[in-house]
Specification:
By secondary structure, the protein is an alpha+beta fold. The protein has a single domain, classed as Fumarylacetoacetate hydrolase, domain 2. Helix content is 15%, strand content 33%. It has four helices and 14 strands. Strands 1, 2, 4, 5, 7, 8 and 11 form a seven-stranded mixed β-sheet that branches. Strands 10-9-13-14 form a four-stranded antiparallel β-sheet, with no helix packed on it. Strands 6-3-12 form a three-stranded antiparallel β-sheet. It starts with a strand and ends with a strand. Bound molecules: zinc ion. The site of zinc ion has 8 residues, from strand 1. Zinc ion (ZN) binds next to strand 1.
Length: 203
């Protein structure tokens, strides 16, 4: 299973990190060892104290595909989830400034969480799903898939031009503005629409 992540897919988040608006989706990957096990806390890693949460809508691929046209992309997934793409922000900024790959900052053990999956047909419009993240009971991120620069079907198509998509692969679709740091004893709770999708303790 591979985890493909999309960077810079919400313009307000691009501005908050002072990045340029991309002309194509920014892609990176996380290995399967980055996935947090269910009901396990997130441990701040020894190599960075500056870990940021990024809440994102996640899509699970159900069918093998390559060069998928956007109009057929909806046949390749049935389920949507909510995830966190943890990022060692200072380390990422350092790697970015040197033009180096981001893996150490993005793909470390435990650097992503995925909620239980929800059937996509539970949603009226996949391009109008609201989601949010609370830290210690206070809302820190709010987004809506309507704000994506590239929508889910376009992302599936784009990813599949580089990487064959296989059953069980997951795509993180980018984070809205409001990213920020976590500290030991914080608790995070993610919501899709108004339903709680996950809770996570930081250690
Ligand atoms: Zn992200």
């Amino acid at each position: 299973m591979k985890i493909i992540c999309v960077g810079r897919n919400y313009s307000a988040h691009i501005l908050e990190l002072k990045n340029e608006l991309p002309s194509e989706p920014v892609l990176f990957m996380k290995p399967d060892t980055s996935l947090l096990q269910k009901n396990q806390p997130f441990f701040i890693p020894h190599f960075s104290q500056d870990i940021h949460y990024e809440v994102e809508i996640v899509v699970k691929i159900k069918k093998i595909g390559k060069h998928i046209e956007p109009k057929y992309a909806s046949k390749y997934y049935d389920e949507i989830g909510l995830g966190i793409d943890f990022t060692a922000r200072t380390l990422q900024a350092d790697l970015k400034s040197k033009g180096l790959p981001w893996e150490k900052a993005k793909a470390f053990d435990g650097s992503c969480l995925i909620s239980d999956w929800i059937e996509k047909n539970k949603f009226q419009d996949l391009n109008a799903i609201s989601f949010s993240l609370q830290k210690n009971g206070k809302t820190v991120q709010e987004g809506n898939t309507a704000q994506m620069l590239w929508k889910i079907d376009e992302l599936i198509s784009y990813c599949s031009t580089f990487f064959t998509l296989k059953i069980g692969d997951v795509i993180f679709t980018g984070t809205p503005e409001g990213v920020g740091p976590v500290s030991p004893n914080d608790s995070l709770e993610g919501f899709i629409e108004s339903t709680s999708a996950f809770t996570l303790k930081i250690k």
